[in-house]
Write a structure and sequence with these properties.
Blueprint lengths: L1 H10 L4 H22 L6 E3 L13 H8 L7 H7 L4 H13 L3 E3 L1
Antiparallel strand pairs: 1-2
Length: 105
């Protein structure tokens, strides 16, 4: 739903309806991810050797965030200092966990 709403806004940047739908989709997605990753606090720990991160097919932002998943900082701390929106951090951590790149404790 987020991708469709973002594409609609991209195609029609002046559309208040598209902007509203995207905002609502992001709000619902954010609430769901916060519930699963922040309450209770989850701490991601790498399941791949740190030296292999550079070879992964990830964006530079995802590689940066993944390299900070050291098992010491919880998701809230990662979101606080990462140069990304909180929603983007939460989505990335969920992707990392789904791809078995990190364990969530």
């Amino acid at each position: 739903a987020e991708l469709v709403a973002a594409r609609a806004l991209e195609l029609s940047p002046a559309s208040d309806a598209a902007r509203s739908v995207l905002g609502e989709v992001e709000r619902v997605l954010g609430a769901s991810l916060r519930a699963s990753l922040l309450e209770p606090p989850r701490t991601p720990r790498l399941r791949v050797p740190p030296g292999e991160i550079a070879a992964l097919r990830l964006s530079s932002g995802d590689k940066y965030l993944l390299s900070r998943c050291d098992g010491k900082r919880d998701v809230r701390a990662l979101a606080a200092f990462a140069p990304m929106r909180e929603l983007e951090v939460l989505k990335a951590i969920r992707r990392f966990a789904d791809a078995e790149l990190v364990d969530l404790r």
